[in-house]
Amino acid sequence: MKRVLGRLGHAIFVLWAVASLTFVMFRLMPGDPTLNFLSESFSEEMRAALLTSFGLDRPLPEQYVLYLGSLLRGDLGVSFLQKKPVLDILLDALPNTVALTVTALVIAYAFGIIAGAFLAFARGSVTEGIAIPAALITRAAPEFWLGMILLAWLSFAWGIFPSSGANEAGSEFTSEWARLTSADFLWHLVLPALTLALYLQGLPLLLMRATMLEVLNDEFIVMARMKGLSRWAIVMRHAARNALLPVATAFALGLGSSFGGNVVIETVFSWPGLGRVLVSAVQGADYPLAQGAFILIAAVLVTMNMVADLLYAWLDPRVSVGARR
Amino acid sequence: MNRRSVLLAATALTALPRLPALAQGAPGDPIRPLVLLTRPQAAAPAAYQAAELIAQEWRKLGLQVELRPLPNQQMSQVVWYERQRWDFTMWQMVGRPERGDPDEMVYNLLHSANIATGYNFVGYSNPDYDRLAEAQRSEMDQARRAAIVREVQEVVNRDQPYAFLVHPVNLQAFNKQVFAEGSAVNQAGLGIRNFWNWISLQPTGRQRDIIVNSTEPVKATNPFYVSGAPDSWVTDLVWDRLMRVGPDGLPQPWAAERVTQVDPLTIDCVIRQGMTHHDGTPVTTEDVVFSYEVPGMGDESPMYKPFVQNIASVTATDARTVRFVLKRPDAAFRIAVLAKLNIVSKRIWAPVVQDYLNRPQNLESFVEERPVGSGPYRFVRSRVNEEVVLEANPNHWARPKADRWIMRIILNTEATLGALRRGEINVLADYFGDPDLVKTMARQLPNMIAVREEVDIGFQFVGMNLRRPPFNDAAFRRALSAAVNREMMAGAAWNGQAVPANSMVSPALAAWHDRGIEGRVPGGNLEGARRLLQEAGYRMVGNRLHYPSGVRETTTPYQ
Amino acid sequence: MASLLTVRDLAVHYATAAGPVRAVDGASFDVPAGSIVGLVGESGCGKSTLGRALMGVMPRSARIAAGSAVFEGQDLVTLPDKARKELLWRRLSFVPQTAMNALDPVQRVGAQLMEVLTERGGLSRAAAASRAEALFTLVGLDPKRLRDWPHQFSGGMRQRASIALALALDPALMIADEPVTALDVIVQRQVLDVMKELQARLGLAMILVTHDVAVVAYACDRVVVMYAGRVVESGPVRAVLEAPLHPYTMGLMNAFPDLERAGGELVPIEGSPPSLLNPPKGCRFAARCPFAVARCAEDPPLVEDAPDHHAACWRSAEAAALRPQAARAETWAGVVA
Amino acid sequence: MTPVIAANDLTKAFPASRRLSDLLRGHRPMVRAVNGVTLGVGAGRALGIVGESGCGKTTTARLLLRLEEVTSGSVLFDGQDVTALRGKALLPFRSSVQLVFQNPFDALNPRFTIRRTLTEPLRNFGIPPDQQDARIREAMARVRLDPAEAYLDRHPHELSGGQLQRVVLARALVAHPRAIIADEPVSMLDVSVRAGVLNVLRRARDELQLAAIYISHDLALIRYVCEEVAVMYLGRVVESGPTAEIIAAPAHPYTRALVAAVPVPRVDQDRGALPIQGGLPDQVNQPSGCAFRDRCPLAMPRCAEEAPAPRSIAPGRMAACHLV
Amino acid sequence: MRAARATLGFLRSQPFALVGISIYLLFLVLAIFADQIATHDPRQILFSGAYRVARYLPPSATHYLGTTAGGRDIFSQLVHGTRSALTVGVTAAFCVVFLGSLMGLLAGYLGGWVDRIIMRLSDIVLGLPFLPFVLVISALTRPGTVTLVASVALMLWPNTARVIRSQVLSLRERGWVEAARVTGCSPMRIIFVHIAPQVAPLAALYGSIAVGWAILTEASASFLGFGDPAAISWGLMLQDAFANQALSREAWNWFIPPGLCIVALVLAGFLVSRGSEKLLFPKLGD
């Protein structure tokens, strides 16, 4: 309880700092946000009016206070270009990003954990000699490169998977949930999720293998063998449970970081998610939108960092249950 | 007439007013290193490649040319707000339906009234030009006006304030298994990405949706605000206008049954009978009047405000007639105003306008849950980076043949082609990729892919800053222009999807384009360029081009 | 006395890049039923390796190179894995040195005890639960603490829990590897008392691996002294400690400060044990031994020099004469250059 | 005679981990690892501090060495209060009071040669470079590592535990200290080499007239090297005096238990049951009154009410128990 | 000399690290002798005739890997791209290692408010999404190698700092650090003379991973259009290839080699760090 409160306070502090940093970042940049509106008919007065309508003509401290105030109210402002509330735009994109990230992570971790545990046992074998470099290579390859090759191969050439988007053109659904669970959506999800998973699996695999090897050398595993326990009991009940601790933490951290890291995959697969909102907002100089997307991604990251900490503490009795003497 | 002789003729025709008569003697100062601004390769690959090619050629003239790629934002900042600072820049004018009338290109771009803050950022000031630009505005006679516009192009050709590069050629394709090939309509300067095509495409099978791609997201669906090209494609379909630019590039009556020019300052529009908004209410003259009043109220619609500035009054003279009275004659009024402004429902918008007049924001921030227009398509939904869905308006007099019009946002050019091949889209309308690939696909799938090509209204050019020597010297500009090989550029930078340009009026606008100019497109003539410079007094010393005798370099290089 | 465990010429080698390390190199001794045998020696002498080798659980790189270890009539060395697994914990159990690492950190102590009772002992959950409580009471722990996590235990409690774990299935032999080394004197004494008491009460045999002669003196019936992978002396505690036959044992006794004996200088054994990678020929202690003679270049056999008292020294017959010399520092000084 | 180094009512409190309830109440619980310790040792003398782990003996040593900030009380060097000295002002004290570590395998920078390790204090204490070599040789000879050349250019991992501990001692001696504090100096060493290190230590103390403090849990060892001993329990000195007397006739019940628990390497031991029960109590919530009362076989009601003050029970002997 | 022999011995026993170092060396040679190895000027638009740009040429004896859509020699771009990759990778890694080690050392050894401030700072940085941050910074300032390297360094130092800090925390408890205090070393001397060399291998390990991160980030940023437009980098080559639909053209010669180079160089960092992992965690290496 105390840990949760403390960690929460810490997360709020970090969020505040990130929000302030974002404010500074977006205010102190060179260039003029109104430049995007240049046209033959754009005049000085219009420019001034535009700045006023976004409050950009006020002194910075005042802007900062207003900014923090609206953040607290969950108001991320209005998009320069779309003129819609930023939050609405982000919430539209959010489910797609969540679906992509979670699916990819689950695939990556399920595979990585099993393969990693297997490799821990296959120490020194030929399999290991091939599998580890292979895992490292998937992690070393640029995601977009891998994605484009997969796309060219599985979609353009063989026509198996759709080339872009999250749904068939013009498909109708009764609810967002119905959309996310439709066969159509899942079919569109396969390729991006697979690419992302391919990139992500290296970490759990290597981590699982390393911690497993470490745990297998631990005295309590030696003891378990001395006790004559079955191999299954040793591996599952003792080794895996201990080895999974850091992997579970990595999962939570990965959830946070791939949220922001999806930018590239979303662009390759024209996946209508947060990352693409961010990129197109940045490219189009839609600062309120870019700022909002950035803050939302950061908020998820901070939250997941917190969850990772709490998860670790919760899973590991050494942390969660204080020592008593 | 070959190019060289053209150049010589051009040289002979023009005087060299600002140069010493005697081009002999010791050379002047060496010309400072010049910086050519361009958008980065990633943002504008063709323009970047063109800039590289141009720079390569100009260096051969003894100039030190540095390429400076700048992101959109920063480039606009420099070119637009720091007009004294830069030397020359890659720039483009994009084709839009309303640019089917030459007024915008002629008046706004190069009239000296726009030098300080307007679009004449190159700082071109020529009283002769100004006179012609003004004259074409108020000339109501089509033939006479066309003659003036052609004259304008001659002046531009002589002065070369821009080094025109190319008019892009739009390459589009559609799936003829889905739509009857003959039902596709081409619009001058736009190709099949046009209003007429969207209502004409005739589905032949079970797929009755038009699915068209876009490389950028739709940002706003608002009759008083468009933020980018895709926005305008959507508003075009959802809201009707009094007139529309026809496939031939000329305005034709639309919501107005008849448009009559009562006198040079008065225009009457008789609206069609029985028109309804998507919510079922009738379209009235009151709606029309309201639609033309709103942009003039405060700064509620900065985008459309300039278009109503010339309207002295707009009134409903009877139940079906709306009368426009102008402040001064405007030849482009039909195309630039009547075919541009959207007709909205006063019932819906009047309270909104009232509300927004008291707010710091303007109407641009108003988001209709489900926009209501009166056009041939009704708005269904829009997801920013995903798609926009419209459905056919069965009550429209020009009811579309297709059931729905869906625009898919696909950023990835490769994926766009993949989507066309897989049938995820059936009209390829927004394509800047490699044309060979589309043509190859059409060859491989002759029963499926139909390709259309159309010269664009827009053009690509190098804007030279006439405020900064040596660009103030027309001879120098002509020489630079002469050194550029536009054919090569069209091939190597625009993948062959472009035609050389020497005018701001595209050949697509047959009525206005000065055909004579085509034969005088300078290009690829390094020798000619060198001679022009030589004659104007510029001298090569070593590898470096120097000003004519007595001219000092006083301009600081771009930083 | 019937021998419960008979170890003969046992050798355990570690494979390293530089060649085999002979951690245990021909060890022989007996463990009579119901007795506590102290296995004493300095670090690196092979005593811990020996203990673990008997359990048949060693690092990958280690293997039993030779010898036999007959336990209740079965040779642990040649016994097939499956059969040996049957013996493990049921007949033969183990108490490790650092009980903290020996308990699974993410499972409650009770669960670990239950696991052995149900899976190896075949008890029902209910029976196992009451047995677990009984075991905790037996080693002097509050049964309530079965629900604790290992890290909540103090060092002494962990060691008691380990003993409870080792006793769970009523083994005949318990091998305890330095069970009290990491503990404070008072706790050390308490744990030793528990072990002694249980041994007497349950009649099990115990091998107590330790470096501390005092622990052996306090707790053991018999002692086996190891040096550099070899057994150098073995016999009843009294005989070995009071009348050591091997110079190493003599040195060890004199190197120890004694609470109750005042004055005098301690006598250090100069030098350090040989590398087990390439051990010298002959007696391994010869290089540090003040009494070394030419013959020490040959391997001295472990022979019964006195009743039930074995030593591996060519000069064990002169032991009585050597002992007073060994008590003097000058004797040892300068043996090693 | 003024002690060379002394502790005067020395206390060290550490913040304990806070519970949520503490947090809410703004309460900050402290653990007193050392609680009013007073002791001292003169030149050429040796004092042993003995007790179980957690009794505060190591913290006391670290306080005396000024490695830990003192909460209250003072550290005296030659009668001078050095408690408040910081930074450069501390250097003379540092050069005079040196430490011998418990774990020789950990006490030397693995990347430094022995020479560099021994040069480091000389450099820091401003010994001119031309004198350094002589100092190093002297120290090496004193710890019986000769010839010095055989060791000076080697790295720690090339030496055995006994040799390392001698290097550690040489490093302490190279600065010519006045006092030396040895924290469990031989507990990590093999039995056969312990005696050697202890003998070197004892001889150095005698020859250089050092004031020595030994920290150990092993009374037998203390007896061998120290004339005097202080027994600590939960941060307090419960008994002190001449070692031989205390071992022969312990006054405090805890000392009695300690003496009874020490193992001896002899077979005939008539050792009764330990006169103590239970384990160390929670440091945060110590029992009221006498800290030892819940483990004491002789505890009486008064022990819960009143903490016994240390009192003199014989010349040079002190104990803190109501029963003495 | 001794160290060199030890390193060599270590490498022989660590095939992973050996492969990694070999890749590094190979690319280093390519970068140094890029001007000699490259067959053409990587920026120059090549012509195959008068005003005919040599575009999309297949691999040949003159163009080992063919030419791009813009008429540039792919092989020469690849070779010159090594320079920018190494520059980006190595400078970023250096900054990460320097900043991370410094922060970790100070926080770990000094503790107290120094530690608190540094750790709070690192928490904040860890709360910033990596790639989005790099993109936003590139977009808001001038996109370029300096911006990229700076933002990568800014984003990655906390990982290194945290690891170094915890290492320092445990080193601080080591006897020889205590001994340094007792023998009169100042805190700065202890940090930089005694402790720093101990954490150097760990820092180097994080550095070798940072090399990879920086290169991948450069590639991703370039792909999204936020790269340094003036550089010749593998990322920009890939971007160029994708923008020109090299995939649809099946111009494998264009988009496979830069990707493989990135993989190889990033992989080298991983291999080196995995190799030395054994050095650091001997527990894994029995």
From TrEMBL, chain A:
Cellular compartments annotated: Cell membrane
Family annotation (Pfam families): BPD_transp_1, BPD_transp_1_N
Supply the CDD domains for this chain: TM_PBP2
Question: Out of the domains of life, which is the source?
Answer: Bacteria
Q: Write the record's keywords in alphabetical order, separated by commas.
A: Cell membrane, Membrane, Transmembrane, Transmembrane helix, Transport
Any idea where the ABC transmembrane type-1 domain is?
A: 94-312
| Entries under PROSITE patterns matching the protein | ABC_TM1
Q: Which Gene3D superfamilies would you find in this protein's record?
A: MetI-like (1.10.3720.10)
For this chain's UniProt record, which GO biological process terms are given? transmembrane transport
- Name of the protein described by the UniProt record: ABC transporter permease
Automatic annotation (TrEMBL), chain B:
Query: Which Pfam families does the annotation name?
Result: SBP_bac_5
Q: Which domain of life is it from?
A: Bacteria
Q: Which residue numbers delimit the Solute-binding protein family domain? A: 251-546
Q: Does the keyword Transmembrane apply?
A: no
Write the signal peptide boundaries: 1-23
- A Gene Ontology molecular-function term? peptide transmembrane transporter activity
Gene3D superfamilies from the entry? Dipeptide-binding Protein, Domain 3, Periplasmic binding protein-like II
Q: Which UniProt keywords apply?
A: Signal, Transport
Localization of this protein? Periplasm
What's a single GO BP term from this record? Answer: peptide transport
InterPro entries in the record: SBP_5 (IPR039424), SBP_5_dom (IPR000914)
Task: Give the protein family.
Answer: Belongs to the bacterial solute-binding protein 5 family.
Name by which UniProt lists this protein: Twin-arginine translocation pathway signal protein
UniProtKB/TrEMBL annotation, chain C:
CDD domains with a match to the protein in the record? ABC_NikE_OppD_transporters (cd03257)
A molecular function annotated in GO for this UniProt entry is: ATP hydrolysis activity
Localization of this protein: Cell inner membrane
The record's principal subcellular location, in a coarse class, is membrane
Give the protein family. Belongs to the ABC transporter superfamily.
Any one GO CC term of the record: plasma membrane
User: What processes in GO biological process is this protein linked to?
Assistant: peptide transport; transmembrane transport
Q: What is this protein called?
A: ABC transporter ATP-binding protein
Report domain ABC transporter positions. Answer: 7-253
Q: Which domain of life is it from?
A: Bacteria
Write the record's keywords in alphabetical order, separated by commas: ATP-binding, Cell membrane, Membrane, Nucleotide-binding, Transport
Against InterPro entries, the record matches this protein to: AAA+_ATPase (IPR003593), ABC_Ni/Peptide_Import (IPR050388), ABC_transporter-like_ATP-bd (IPR003439), ABC_transporter-like_CS (IPR017871), Oligopep_ABC_C (IPR013563), P-loop_NTPase (IPR027417)
| Membrane topology (UniProt) | Peripheral membrane protein
Keyword Cytoplasm recorded? no
State if Manganese is listed as a keyword: no
TrEMBL record, chain D:
Put simply, this protein is called ABC transporter ATP-binding protein
* GO terms, molecular function: ATP binding; ATP hydrolysis activity
Q: What is its main location?
A: membrane
The taxonomic lineage of its organism, from the top, reads: Bacteria, Pseudomonadati, Pseudomonadota, Alphaproteobacteria, Acetobacterales
NCBIfam families recorded: oligo_HPY (TIGR01727)
* Native species: Falsiroseomonas algicola
Cite a single Pfam family from the UniProt record. ABC_tran
Bilayer topology reads: Peripheral membrane protein
Entry's localization field? Cell inner membrane
SMART domains assigned: AAA
Cite the ABC transporter domain residue spans from the record. Answer: 18-259
Provide one Gene Ontology biological process annotation.
peptide transport
One term under GO cellular component:
plasma membrane
List the PROSITE patterns hit by this protein, alphabetically.
ABC_TRANSPORTER_1, ABC_TRANSPORTER_2
Q: Which SUPFAM superfamilies match?
A: P-loop containing nucleoside triphosphate hydrolases
Keywords, sorted A to Z: ATP-binding, Nucleotide-binding, Transport
